[in-house]
TrEMBL record:
Organism: Paenibacillus hemerocallicola
PROSITE patterns: HTH_GNTR
UniProt-recorded Gene Ontology molecular function terms: DNA binding; DNA-binding transcription factor activity
InterPro entries: GntR_C (IPR011711), TF_FadR/GntR_C (IPR008920), Tscrpt_reg_HTH_GntR (IPR000524), WH-like_DNA-bd_sf (IPR036388), WH_DNA-bd_sf (IPR036390)
Phylogenetic classification of the source organism: Bacteria, Bacillati, Bacillota, Bacilli, Bacillales
HTH gntR-type domain mapped to chain residues: 7-74
Protein name: GntR family transcriptional regulator
C-alpha cells in the first residue's frame, strides 16, 4: 500500500514538472531545487528523486557533477537531429494515413482546422500549437504504423519543447503560417494524394525547424 501511494505521488510530480518544462514555466538551464520543490509540492524527497530520474532518462533534466538538477538546455544541433527524424517519420505516417482516410477522421481534422484558424485570428498562439499537435496525432492514429508511432512517442517530450518554442517565444510568430501549412496538408489528404500529403508534411516540419532555430538564437544560444 505504501509503495503504491509513493508511486502515485512520483507519477503526479513527474507529470507536473514535465508539463512546466515543456511549457517553459521552467526555463532551460534553470536549477530545480529539490528542497524548494519538495516544499512547494508538499511531498517527501523520495518520490521527487524518482520523478527526477524519469525526467533525466527522457533528457528533460540534467544531473550535474555537483548533484544539482537543471532543466536540459536546448541546442540547434539537437533541434536539427530531432526534426530530421520527425520529418521522415511524420511524412511516412501522413502517407499511410492518407491511404487509410475515412469520413470520421476527415471531419475531425476539419474541426481541428476550424479551431486552429479561430485561435490564429484571436492571436492565441499556444492554442494554435495545441491544435497542430492534435492534427498530427489524428494522422498518427489513422496511419496504423505502430513502429513509426513508437519511435515518435519515444521522442515526444523532447520534440514538444522545440515545437512550442515558436508559439511561446518567437516575438514575430506568424500564427496564420502553420494554419496555411496544415490546410495544405489537409487538402492533399482530402484528395487522396498520398505522395503530395507526404511532401507537404515534410515541408511543414522543415519550415518549423527554421522558426525553432531562429528562436533558439534569439533566446537560448549565447
Amino acid at each position: 500500500m505504501e509503495q503504491t501511494k509513493r508511486r502515485k505521488a512520483s507519477d503526479a510530480i513527474y507529470t507536473e514538472i514535465k508539463r512546466k518544462i515543456i511549457e517553459f514555466e521552467y526555463e532551460p538551464n534553470e536549477h530545480l531545487s529539490e528542497e524548494l520543490l519538495a516544499k512547494s509540492l508538499e511531498v517527501s524527497r523520495t518520490p521527487l528523486r524518482e520523478a527526477f530520474h524519469r525526467l533525466e532518462l527522457e533528457k528533460l533534466v540534467t544531473k550535474l557533477s555537483t548533484g544539482r538538477i537543471v532543466v536540459a538546455r536546448l541546442t540547434i544541433v539537437e533541434a536539427e537531429e530531432l526534426f530530421q527524424v520527425r520529418a521522415a517519420l511524420e511524412g511516412l505516417l501522413t502517407r499511410h494515413a492518407t491511404r487509410n482516410m475515412n469520413e470520421t477522421t476527415l471531419e475531425k481534422l476539419e474541426q481541428v482546422m476550424r479551431r486552429m484558424q479561430a485561435a490564429a485570428d484571436s492571436h492565441d498562439h499556444a492554442e494554435v500549437v495545441r491544435c497542430g499537435s492534435e492534427f498530427h496525432q489524428l494522422l498518427y492514429q489513422l496511419s496504423q504504423n505502430g513502429t513509426a508511432i513508437g519511435f515518435l512517442e519515444q521522442l515526444r517530450s523532447r520534440l514538444e519543447r522545440y515545437r512550442r518554442i515558436g508559439g511561446y517565444k518567437h516575438p514575430h510568430y506568424a500564427a496564420n503560417l502553420p494554419v496555411e501549412e496544415h490546410e495544405a496538408i489537409l487538402t492533399r489528404v482530402r484528395a487522396g494524394d498520398a505522395d503530395g500529403a507526404e511532401r507537404t508534411m515534410v515541408a511543414h516540419v522543415s519550415r518549423s525547424l527554421e522558426t525553432v532555430k531562429e528562436t533558439l538564437q534569439m533566446y537560448f544560444i549565447k
